[in-house]
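Technical annex, item 7. During the second reporting period the consortium partners agreed on a shared format for inverse folding records so that results from different sites could be compared directly. Each record opens with the tokenized structure and is followed by the designed sequence. A conforming record, contributed by the partner at site C, is shown below for reference.
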């Protein structure tokens, strides 16, 4: 398997200006005629052979400038078509290929999902449709004629604007789509099928009248309205916030059931996993609504950050993904609650990216080498990539940042750009040298910042000493060199012990931000009348781990009085983490007594709930949610016992439920929806539901019998999927007949709703009990389960392997064995999904030695299996290295 290196990048020897595609859809024998207008690239090697990428294609015919190619002129292998002596002037290649969409289980290229023809071309799927220069820096103008059976495919969609449609014989019809914007092949898409439609219009700030539509399985149109509205809100937001207007007459979104990822930003024709489109109060939770809004926005925002400015090569993936995640996070923060959303972002980062950065799959945000690019659509590229953009805004200030974005879009529009181009726009706008800042893109691993504070009463100064350290991560980017200090924005403030902020000054702090640029630095505040409590990394101003020896009382002060909502939440998390780590390390039994630290936490939470829960229920629900088991494991770092962590967390939940019980029950009552109240997915309503359900969860932890009764009543009375699923989740943690009956009833009620059954699969797969393994094996035989559908695999198997730490890490190794078995069974069908599942082993080196040996054995079994895909072999190899 070859390694692709950033250092080896060179421009393509040939360019393609225009692509005319004629696609005649057929379930098993789809014919594709590609007419490519090529020319030698002045920046390429003169006279070089033309090597077009291909994958699982059958070549039917080829002509050069209208003539058949002579003997020996071309060579065809399974992965390439080579023209040995291409003309050194513009020329036209016409290539006819055949593909079998029904046999395409990899879901890359042209495939069928429930009978609907659709495509997925990022990163390298276009080569599965026709022979092509399938690299993002080759950009062409596409015209696509799609022909299909009128009955089976009444809807025919392509990129750009519809220019023509008509009949093509007795049973067939066609549509021609033209996209005037040059684009890389990975943004190509087509859809053909029987689909329902909801639509509306949007007039851009430039006066363009755009037809927007969402296509879904017929009969599910009523579940597409929220997504349609999210498209219009995204369009308006991007105009308001970044001055970016839409640039075609049509914007189509199509939902399909079989999709490897969340969605895809194809130009003018976004294709979505239906999980991120379809929503009704009866089938979707508040989390689903929030995800749909965020992902619709994300894909729409790619139209500028990704499509108008694309990536020169796949090493620059963060250029579009990190930036677009930042943009969608800002959108959600504006549409919902900014502090609540920030907490959600950080929880995701800590749960997914920090472990990745600490494990064998760690890589820089801009990797230097890859074997399989599909394995680099990671939390590091996406989430840490977004944090880098956010730090840039913190460092430069919002106005300069916006100016830098405008400059980036203006200078790179229509180009395939690099991270250097991006940073150059901000450097030019701000007049700042961003060379040291750019190390964030190159160095893997999560930095730690240790901070200590000293108050000098005589001098009335307060000094904060910072020391940053970076883990040494062996990547190609590091090449054995020691990591160099990063530029770390520290948003901070000083809080008086009795509340209120301390107005102390330091010349190093501008607009509440201190910039740590070297390994060690001290910051002195003058005129400080009494010892303050420092509030550091407000709003999580940098993706770092903070070691800050605050006392318990100081943390309680921050929880009660910090002006920064994120740090109030963080204070509660840190207090809880201290209890959890101590108990887990001590191997403490499952009892609600958690010592003085736990008691202090519950007292503080009681005051917080009394004073504030009703004012901001969404925030309160987050304050009540303890750090997850995986986060505790990361904090412990080595020789981890997942069972001890579960017991520690459960015992603290029991204590919170017991000590706060009456308050939690009163809150549940106070937040109850009046009967007949109409459903709204807005953030305030969702927040009320979240707090009610967090209360139910804790009350049940302390008193399973009383909680079960409450949960059963909620299950019966619920008018939303959020409340129904929350009740079922609570019940799922209490072994017994009530649980089994409730699960059975739910499974029966939604047997025709695959997306709801996914939630049911996931709940069961996450039960932290020894019986779960057999339950998961049993559910793999459920009629609704299929290894062929990525959503089903993710909900059942990945929920078990990635989100059920005690059972994945079963001491007998059976959790590892099940995961390895499914990875191998899946690899022949869908290597991308198999490889992603295998990343569950990311933490294998952290667990205690008995488990570690068993995990390693399972991983080796995968690595040694014959005929592995490059995707799985890459993850297995790196995990074991
Ligand atoms: N840009 C899209 C990435 C994507 C993808 C990558 C590999 C294989 C299948 C895929 N489907 C979508 C999604 C996004 O981040 O916007
Ligand atoms: Zn994206």
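Designed sequence (site C submission):
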């Amino acid at each position: 398997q070859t390694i692709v290196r950033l250092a080896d990048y060179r421009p393509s020897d040939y360019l393609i200006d225009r692509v005319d595609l004629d696609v005649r859809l057929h379930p098993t024998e789809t014919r594709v005629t590609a007419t490519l207008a090529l020319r030698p690239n002045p920046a390429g090697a003169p006279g070089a052979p033309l090597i077009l990428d291909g994958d699982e294609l059958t070549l039917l015919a080829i002509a050069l400038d209208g003539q058949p190619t002579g003997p020996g002129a071309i060579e065809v292998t399974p992965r390439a078509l080579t023209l040995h002596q291409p003309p050194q002037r513009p020329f036209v290649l016409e290539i006819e290929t055949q593909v079998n969409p029904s046999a395409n289980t990899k879901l890359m290229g042209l495939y069928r999902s429930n009978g609907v023809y659709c495509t997925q071309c990022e990163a390298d799927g276009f080569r599965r449709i026709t022979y092509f220069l399938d690299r993002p820096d080759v950009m062409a103008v596409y015209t696509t004629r799609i022909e299909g059976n009128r009955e089976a495919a009444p809807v025919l969609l392509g990129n750009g604007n519809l220019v023509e449609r008509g009949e093509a014989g007795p049973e067939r019809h066609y549509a021609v789509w033209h996209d005037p914007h040059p684009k890389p092949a990975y943004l190509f898409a087509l859809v053909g099928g029987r689909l329902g439609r909801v639509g509306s219009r949007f007039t851009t700030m430039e006066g363009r009248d755009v037809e927007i539509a969402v296509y879904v399985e017929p009969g599910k149109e009523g579940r597409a309205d929220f997504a349609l509205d999210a498209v219009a809100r995204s369009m308006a937001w991007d105009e308001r916030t970044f001055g970016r207007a839409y640039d075609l007459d049509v914007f189509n979104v199509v939902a399909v059931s079989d999709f490897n990822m969340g969605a895809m930003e194809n130009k003018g024709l976004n294709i979505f996993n239906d999980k991120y489109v379809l929503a009704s109060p009866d089938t979707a939770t508040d989390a689903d609504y929030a995800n749909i809004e965020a992902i619709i926005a994300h894909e729409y925002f790619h139209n500028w950050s990704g499509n108008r400015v694309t990536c020169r090569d796949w090493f620059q993936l963060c250029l579009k993904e990190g930036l677009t995640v930042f943009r969608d996070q800002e959108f959600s923060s504006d549409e919902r609650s900014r502090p609540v959303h920030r907490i959600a972002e950080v929880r995701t980062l800590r749960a997914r990216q920090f472990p990745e950065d600490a494990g064998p799959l760690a890589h820089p945000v801009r990797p230097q080498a890859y074997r399989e690019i599909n394995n680099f659509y990671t939390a590091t590229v996406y989430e840490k990539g977004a944090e880098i953009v956010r730090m840039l805004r913190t460092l430069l200030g919002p106005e300069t940042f916006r100016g830098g974005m405008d400059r980036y879009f203006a200078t790179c529009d229509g180009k395939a750009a690099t991270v250097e181009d991006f940073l150059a726009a901000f450097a030019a706008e701000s007049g700042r040298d961003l060379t040291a800042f750019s190390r964030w893109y190159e160095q893997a691993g999560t930095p730690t910042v240790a901070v200590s504070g000293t108050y000098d009463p005589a001098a009335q100064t307060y000094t904060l000493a910072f020391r940053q350290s970076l883990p040494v991560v062996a990547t190609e980017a590091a090449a054995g060199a020691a990591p160099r200090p990063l530029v770390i924005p520290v948003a901070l403030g000083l809080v008086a012990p009795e509340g209120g902020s301390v107005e102390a000054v330091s010349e190093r702090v501008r607009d509440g931000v201190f910039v740590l640029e070297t390994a060690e630095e001290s910051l002195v505040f003058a005129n400080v009348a009494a010892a303050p409590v420092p509030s550091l990394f407000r709003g999580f101003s940098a993706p770092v781990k903070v070691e800050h020896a605050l006392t318990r009382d100081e943390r309680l002060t921050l929880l009660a009085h910090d002006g920064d909502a994120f740090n109030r939440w963080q204070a509660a998390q840190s207090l809880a983490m201290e209890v959890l780590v101590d108990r887990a390390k001590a191997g403490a039994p499952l009892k609600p007594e958690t010592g003085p630290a736990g008691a202090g936490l519950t007292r503080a939470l009681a005051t917080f709930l009394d004073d504030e829960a009703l004012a901001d229920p969404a925030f309160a629900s987050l304050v009540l949610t303890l750090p997850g088991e995986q986060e505790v494991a990361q904090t412990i770092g080595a020789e981890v016992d997942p069972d001890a962590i579960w017991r520690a967390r459960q015992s603290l939940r029991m204590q919170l439920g017991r000590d706060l019980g009456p308050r939690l029950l009163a809150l549940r009552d106070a937040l109850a929806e009046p009967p007949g109240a109409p459903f709204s997915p807005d953030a305030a309503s969702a927040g009320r539901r979240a707090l009610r359900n967090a209360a139910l969860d804790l009350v049940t932890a302390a008193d399973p019998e009383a909680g079960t009764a409450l949960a059963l009543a909620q299950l019966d009375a619920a008018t939303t999927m959020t409340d129904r699923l929350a009740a079922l989740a609570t019940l799922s943690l209490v072994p017994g007949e009530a649980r089994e009956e409730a699960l059975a009833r739910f499974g029966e009620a939604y047997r025709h709703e695959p997306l709801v059954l996914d939630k049911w699969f996931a709940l069961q797969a996450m039960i932290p009990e020894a019986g779960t393994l057999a339950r998961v094996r049993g559910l793999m035989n459920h009629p609704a389960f299929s290894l062929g559908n990525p959503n089903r695999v993710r909900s059942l198997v990945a929920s078990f392997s990635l989100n059920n730490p005690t059972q994945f890490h079963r001491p007998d190794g059976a959790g590892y064995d099940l995961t390895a078995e499914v990875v191998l069974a899946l690899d022949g069908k869908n290597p991308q999904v198999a490889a992603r599942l295998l990343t569950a082993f990311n933490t294998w080196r952290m667990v205690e030695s008995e488990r570690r040996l068993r995990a390693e054995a399972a991983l080796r079994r995968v690595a040694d299996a014959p005929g592995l895909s490059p995707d799985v072999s890459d993850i297995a190899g790196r995990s074991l290295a």
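The mean pLDDT is 98. Residues 298, 302, 321, 324 surround zinc ion (ligand 2) (CB under 6 Å). All partners now use this format for quarterly exchanges.
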